[in-house]
Design a protein that fits this description.
about 290 residues, alpha/beta, 7 strands, about 40% helix, about 10% strand
Length: about 290
């Protein structure tokens, strides 16, 4: 038996015309928004500047997968979500909404221009929602393409109702309004401007750049949401935090005075209102 001489590996002959270096612009085109969040420690923001869901025409779109990746790369802590989107896929919008609600940290949503349709659902996920003075929310019922006879179309209409109810419940939870009232707004395909969104409870305040003067200091739903965020940050489950806030309100009355007028008009001494920190401390004491 003879030992055969096997061919060896050819010696490398570098070619000046071939380079293995990856061009920077190639990396920039690969999910640039997620990379920005992962690489820039000072940037804890997510930009929603496109349709919601994957856009098969352009390959763009804001998906739950991409938002989840951005949140993982940033880790626990506060995050800002900037929105200017016409909406899109309802289920992607609901998934992104839940991702933001479950995030371990305070979420601030800024509606820079438009948060329509599915994007308006995402906007409701913020612990604090800011909207530009010239910004808009648009809410409506779910859309679908359907073909068939009257029986087929009636079945499609019945199928869509639970989806509309789910969206209405999110708006109702955010605003504190009745779910039926939200359904009527959705039926009418309602456009809600910046100040109206604040007045109706969809948003907490204008963007800082749009705030010309301070408010009157009256208690609002935003205070309760900020207290909830603080309690959740301390490790308390959301359901327990909401229960304590409800108990505190019922036991102490309306911190804003319940619209009873100026107590000095009846010879009563005005009492300073408790700060949010005082309220949060009182709520924590309920668990002792």
């Amino acid at each position: 038996m003879t030992i055969k001489t096997l061919p060896g590996a050819p010696e490398g002959r570098p070619c000046a015309g071939i380079s293995s270096q990856l061009q920077p612009r190639a990396m920039d085109r690969w999910n640039a928004g997620v990379r920005a969040a992962a690489n820039d420690e000072g940037d804890r923001s997510i930009s929603v500047y496109d349709v919601i869901g994957y856009d098969y025409w352009t390959g763009d779109g804001v998906t739950a997968k991409r938002v989840a990746a951005a949140l993982r790369s940033m880790g626990a802590g506060p995050v800002t979500v900037n929105i200017n989107s016409p909406g899109g896929d309802m289920f992607e919008g609901l998934a992104i909404y839940n991702l933001l609600r479950e995030h371990d940290g305070e979420v601030t949503v800024k509606v820079l221009g438009l948060a329509a349709s599915a994007a308006s659902i995402i906007a409701m996920a913020g612990d604090t929602v800011e909207i530009s003075r010239a910004g808009f929310l648009m809410i409506h019922n779910a859309w679908v393409m359907a073909v068939g006879n009257r029986n087929d179309l009636a079945e499609v209409a019945a199928t869509l109702k639970p989806f509309d109810d789910a969206m209405a419940s999110i708006y109702a939870a955010r605003t504190g309004a009745d779910q039926k009232a939200m359904s009527k707004l959705m039926d009418a395909e309602t456009w809600i401007g910046g100040q109206a969104a604040i007045d109706d409870g969809f948003a907490d305040s204008l963007l800082p750049s749009d705030q010309v003067e301070k408010g009157s200091g009256k208690a609002s739903a935003s205070a309760a949401r900020r207290i909830e965020a603080g309690l959740r940050a301390s490790g308390m489950p959301k359901s327990e935090a909401m229960r304590l806030i409800s108990e505190f309100k019922s036991s102490s009355g309306d911190p804003a005075g319940g619209g009873e007028g100026d107590p000095t008009e009846h010879g009563q001494q005005a009492v300073a209102q408790p700060s949010e920190a005082d309220i949060a401390a009182a709520l924590r004491s309920f668990t002792l």
